[in-house]
Write a structure and sequence with these properties.
heterodimer, A: 126 residues, alpha/beta, Rossmann fold, 5-stranded parallel sheet, 17% strand, globular, B: 224 residues, mainly alpha, 0% strand
Chain lengths: 126, 224
């Protein structure tokens, strides 16, 4: 896999964007863009070819689940791996995300090793 | 009731109150007027049943009046216009303060991480591991922020219900309150969540209820 692929991280908490960015950098992924809500993220996804989306769920006005559905309903975007990183941990949330086409699901708070494992699950060893 | 004749005026009055009760509560004064009108239309002997009915209506009117008085003492206008907005402001401040503090921690951690390139590999690895633990620990700010946002949302719902109750009781409740000096407040309307998303926006679960990553993985794996 190309560690230089653009990654889009989406979260309305700037602190979390920073944490994910830094952890991705430690894993060798330096080409990271940010969005603080689903609408902005969708706009960015339509402008640039991203290799991965890492998104929070609990955002307004567009939630991460709505963003996921938009991505999967868009012929140009639907193949992009989409990892949900969220505090929503109920079974119904995981099922809803899976049915909407999520690639993987990380529950907050998470550690660096979990992030790495989920990325390996998506892309294979790196 | 024996001897009771419902005059057109009484019937009209009752119909009007029936309509009114769909939209707002009936005042004790109205209930008393009805009772007096009923009594005035009664001819002949008043039976013990009539007396009992009158006493029950009188008791009902007194109950309503007492309930309003007790509600007025709770100071719902202050709760709605000051107490809850004040509490939500405090909570918003907590979120802001923790975000700021976490930012400062991350600044320091990033500075440390930048130093690793100039260190011998062994030391660089140790520092890098320590910095990673700092990043992981800073997850807390997001989770606590979401918990607080959940509390703020609940408080705002309570505020809306208190405001609705105030509107239902109208000016009478305001007149009953002993302290008339209340600060004015216009709570800013927050962003709304689409109704179809409300049920899935649970926010962080309590520690003894939250699913661990292994359980999440098991759910995902069950899809094949």
């Amino acid at each position: 896999m190309d560690k230089n692929m653009p990654i889009l991280i989406v979260d309305d908490y700037k602190t979390m964007l920073r944490i994910i960015r830094n952890l991705l950098k430690q894993l060798g992924f330096d080409n990271v863009d940010e969005a603080t809500d689903g609408s902005t993220a969708l706009h960015r996804l339509r402008e640039k070819n991203y290799g991965l989306v890492i998104s929070d769920w609990n955002m307004e006005p567009m939630t991460g689940l709505q963003l996921l559905r938009e991505v999967r309903n868009d012929a140009k975007l639907k193949h992009i791996p989409f990892v949900m990183v969220t505090a929503e941990s109920k079974t119904e949330n995981v099922i809803a995300a899976k049915e909407a086409g999520v690639t993987n699901y990380i529950v907050k708070p998470f550690n660096a090793e979990t992030l790495k494992q989920k990325l390996v699950a998506v892309f294979g060893n790196f | 009731m024996k001897g009771l004749t419902a005059t057109p005026e009484l019937r009209q009055h009752l119909d009007g109150l029936r309509q009114q009760s769909h939209h707002q509560s009936v005042s004790p004064e109205e209930v008393t007027r009805i009772v007096e009108q009923v009594l005035s239309t009664m001819g002949g002997e008043i039976t013990s049943t009539d007396v009992k009915l009158y006493r029950e209506l009188e008791g009902l009117a007194r109950f309503i009046q007492n309930a309003r008085s007790e509600i007025a003492q709770v100071r719902p206008d202050a709760i709605s216009s000051h107490d809850i907005p004040s509490a939500t402001d405090e909570l918003d401040a907590v979120v802001g303060a923790t975000e700021e503090a976490t930012g400062a921690i991350l600044d320091a951690a990033e500075q440390l991480e930048n130093l690793t390139s100039s260190l011998p590999p062994e030391q660089a690895t140790v520092i890098s591991d320590v910095v990673t633990r700092i990043y992981e620990a800073c997850n807390f700010q997001d989770v606590t922020g979401q918990r607080i946002t959940k509390v703020v949302r609940t408080l705002k719902q309570i505020e809306e219900r208190v405001s609705a109750m105030l509107a239902a009781f109208g000016d009478e409740l305001t007149r009953m309150q002993t302290d008339t000096a209340t600060p004015k407040y216009n709570p800013a309307a927050g962003p709304s969540i689409a109704p179809d998303q409300v049920d899935l926006l649970h926010g962080p679960a309590l520690p003894d209820e939250a699913k661990r990553q292994a359980e999440i993985d098991a759910i995902l794996a069950s899809f094949g």
